[in-house]
Design a protein that fits this description.
The structure holds two protein chains of two kinds.
Chain A lengths: L9 H30 L17 H9 L2 H32 L5 H13 L6 H11 L5 H9 L2 H12 L3 H9 L4 H12 L1 H17 L2 H6 L8 H12 L4 H21 L1 H13 L1
Helix pairs in contact in A: 1-13, 2-13, 3-6, 3-7, 3-10, 3-12, 4-7, 8-9, 10-14, 12-13
Chain B lengths: L2 H33 L17 H7 L2 H33 L5 H13 L2 H12 L5 H8 L14 H27 L2 H9 L4 H12 L1 H17 L2 H6 L11 H10 L4 H31 L2
The chains are: A mainly alpha, B mainly alpha.
């Protein structure tokens, strides 16, 4: 809606501004509440007085109450492994779909796109059985494997590769580059923004993923943060909200900080991922 | 390049991704269907073909019907509400509103937080007596109420969390589409004397239709795919009031260890997603055509 032309009257405008801010406040409220509780001693967790002392003790207690360091390591490993696998597999597949003619291409693309609808999140029962058969249950690899051939990544990169002028491709071939060299020297560098966008979306997705890791893991050595947090808040702590909110903020902190620092990049990435 | 070489290269490039997709998407779909016609292997007795017995059990299972109806209600409320809010948010932060950057941040932040973490925060929010919501309602002189513990309000509480989490995500797509719209449209409409609401209804909204479809499909998938908050907040209770389909599958499959019946339930879920898929494929086709 073009604000330049359609200026509402003064009253209408202030009403709208008020509405927008009210909604904004409502949206930030649960988070603000969590911050308050986490940074103040437990007796102030539901008492909002301005002179409440600020403390980091809740974070300290949370950090030592469960193996969060190990959970962090697991999540980082998991995200890195999934992303690495996705980048390689999706790049190759997207290149095939964008620039190669072969029988069955349309059918195969349709089979790939099926995963946009039927994500591994839904096929938990059978995938659990497969992982058991492969002897991979309770490993970080098992959490990541179903997500590595990502239809979303293949589709996004395919659309991007298709915008590369064929002349560049041909020029590289005339110079004697093999198909893989062309991919590496022409397509990958030109698709950089798409890769960044995809990486951000992928990492935030898998940092946050919960149900499948909950099912397939069963030990501290393989559990990611989300599952660790759930076990911690559901069983270990009773209902000590200060420590639970502290742990909650702790586990989301890296993503939240990264988001606040690279806000524009994040928003643009999500946008780009949606438009393609 | 010769045609034969093209073929081989294409297939080879596709092979690794195709193998993993086949193993973790296509095979499980087929295996689920197969499993739904067999019994669960129990001690001393293997899995045997049972025909449509599992489906008969499904039809007689009141919890299944409840979870299906809960899930449909959940979808019917959260999808339109989060899309409408997303559109409203996008229009606001696309215009010249004071504090635009901060508002955008406020709206979008829930999107990047894990559902499991925000569910914890909301759980605290809803806590009887201590929770912020309770403090607010007692301030207004309302009687105390166990929001998550009551059959009448528990599902609505989960819906609120979902809308809160999703609206900002969908806003981004509307924002992207709004920014691509030509300002000349609004100028022309203003010269013609069209009101702002009329312009939105007749020009902006129709032009946003592809975005709305895209968002809609995503919203449908998420309404059936995301049950993290059920695990944290209610575990399907009280009295199955917040039992959603995927959560019920999880319970049957991994707490009652009945994979055959879980597979049967999964088939229902896949059918729902399949309908959404057909809609999406029609939609992708159209997009590719005018590209």
């Amino acid at each position: 809606m073009s604000a330049a032309v359609y200026r509402a009257g003064a009253l209408g405008r202030s009403l709208e501004t008020a509405g927008a801010w009210l909604l904004g406040a409502l949206w930030i409220l649960p988070l603000a509440y969590a911050f308050w509780t986490a940074f103040h001693p437990p007796e102030f967790s539901t008492r909002f007085v301005l002179d409440a002392p600020v403390t980091l003790e809740n974070f300290d207690r949370a950090w030592h109450a469960a193996p969060f360091a190990r959970y962090f390591l697991n999540t980082v490993l998991l995200c890195a492994m999934i992303l690495a696998g996705q980048l390689v597999l999706c790049t190759l597949a997207a290149y095939a779909f964008a620039r190669f003619e072969f029988p069955g291409r349309a059918l195969l693309l349709a089979l790939v796109l099926l995963q946009l609808m039927v994500m591994p999140d839904v096929l938990i029962v059978e995938n659990y059985r497969t992982m058991s058969a492969l002897g991979l249950r309770d490993t970080i690899v098992a959490i990541g494997l179903p997500y590595m051939a990502s239809a979303f990544g293949i589709f996004l990169l395919r659309q991007t590769f298709k915008t590369v002028p064929p002349e560049l491709d041909e020029a590289a071939r005339v110079e004697g580059c093999s198909p893989l060299q062309v991919l590496w020297k022409v397509y990958v560098p030109l698709a950089r923004p798409a890769y960044i966008a995809y990486a951000l979306v992928s990492v935030s997705y898998h940092w946050n993923n919960f149900l499948w890791p909950l099912i397939i893991t069963n030990s501290v050595e393989s559990r990611p943060l989300t599952v660790g947090l759930q076990i911690f808040s559901a069983t270990d702590q009773g209902i000590d909200w200060s420590i639970i909110t502290a742990a909650t903020l702790l586990t989301t902190a890296p993503l939240l900080v990264a988001f606040l620092l690279y806000q524009k990049q994040f928003v643009q990435s999500f946008m780009r991922a949606g438009i393609k | 390049m010769r045609r034969g070489t093209q073929w081989v290269h294409g297939w080879l490039l596709l092979l690794p991704a195709a193998a993993l997709l086949a193993l973790f998407t296509h095979y499980p779909i087929v295996a689920t269907l197969w499993q739904s016609f067999h019994s669960t292997a129990r001690a001393g007795r293997g899995s045997t073909y049972v025909g449509i017995d599992n489906y008969r059990a499904l039809l007689d299972d009141p919890i299944f019907w409840q979870s299906l109806s809960n899930n449909l209600w959940y979808a019917a409320v959260t999808i339109p509400l989060s899309i409408a809010l997303a559109l409203l948010m996008a229009c606001w932060v696309n215009g010249k509103i004071p504090g635009r950057a901060l508002l955008r941040l406020a709206y979008f932040t829930p999107t990047i937080l894990p559902m499991i973490a925000v569910a914890n925060i909301w759980l605290f929010f809803y806590t009887p007596e201590y929770g912020l919501l309770e403090r607010f309602t007692t301030m207004l002189g309302l009687p105390t109420h166990n929001w998550l513990g009551s059959k009448n309000t528990a599902l609505s509480c989960l819906m609120a969390v979902a809308v809160w989490k999703e609206a900002g995500f969908f806003m981004i797509f509307y924002l992207a589409a709004l920014q691509q719209m030509s300002p000349q449209l609004a100028e022309a409409a203003a010269i013609e004397g069209a009101s702002r609401w009329y312009f939105f209804r007749r020009v902006t909204f129709p032009l946003l239709m592809p975005t709305t479809l895209f968002v809609l499909v995503n919203a449908v998938i998420n309404a059936f795919r995301l049950v993290d908050h059920v695990v944290v907040m209610t575990r399907g209770g009280p009295d199955n009031a917040t039992e959603l389909l995927l959560y019920y599958i999880y319970e049957i499959g991994f707490r009652f260890w009945d994979p055959a019946y879980a597979a049967t339930l999964t088939i229902v879920l896949l059918t729902i997603l399949g309908v959404a898929a057909l809609a999406q494929f029609g939609f992708i086709e159209r997009r590719v055509h005018y590209r």
